[in-house]
Amino acid sequence: MASEPDLFDSHCHLDFEAFDGWRDQALLEARRVGIRQILLPGVTAQHWPRLLQLCRDQSAADTALYPQLYPALGMHPCFMAHHFPEHLALLQQRLAAREALAVGEIGLDFFIPNADRESQQALLEQQLQLARRFDLPVLLHVRKAHDQVLKMLRRLALPRGGIVHAFSGSEQQARIYMDLGFKLGFGGAISYDRATRLRHLAANLPLEALVLETDAPDMPLADWRAEPNRPQRVADVLAVMATLRAETAERIAHQTSNNAREVLGLECNAPVG
Ligand SMILES: [Zn+2]
Prior knowledge:
With 273 residues, this protein is α/β, with parallel strands linked by helices. The chain has 9 helices and 8 strands.
């Protein structure tokens, strides 16, 4: 019997309303293709209770049928209008109560039109400080702002590193993140032929630095552009990764999943086969 895939979706917004009505089915399908664990990043304080409830509800589910869900909590730079000063105190309380495995999704997005760079930077810095204080890894969303984020990370020296989700920087920036204890997340974007620079990175960075993700319901793969993305597509991201790299899908799955577990402080799995 072929050994079962060992996959981890390191970034999936399963709490979003886009999954209402078919969330259970999406989870069953994901587990069937080998996705064993999924990390859910929080984006606004309004979303946190729902996300935490979802993870709690699922924790009693049969792990042969359903993936395990893990919560992260943070304030996303693309939703600045939803964040208020009191949310930072709420975040601190929840982190102190050990309700999250990581602080995220946080970061800088200078790609969105009229980005309020100063507010974004202030919010990121405050959340990075909380990650340091509670000894937690961080999940970063960074667009057109890698140098600014790296500068902040160097200054704050986080104890645990984290994951740069949907990595879009240069090879040099990737190496600096790695030196700072970060893993780099790759998802559906590598399935597009035109993404030559990204595909080159996915092919050449050390496997020890990579994690797989979907960012579902966003970032659909090239072959499924018409429908919302879903966690089971991690298996398809893996297939693309295996065509790009001189390594077997089995080895890539095992190592990238353990990379995610390692950075999040979860138990790693033994090699398959
Ligand atoms: Zn996200």
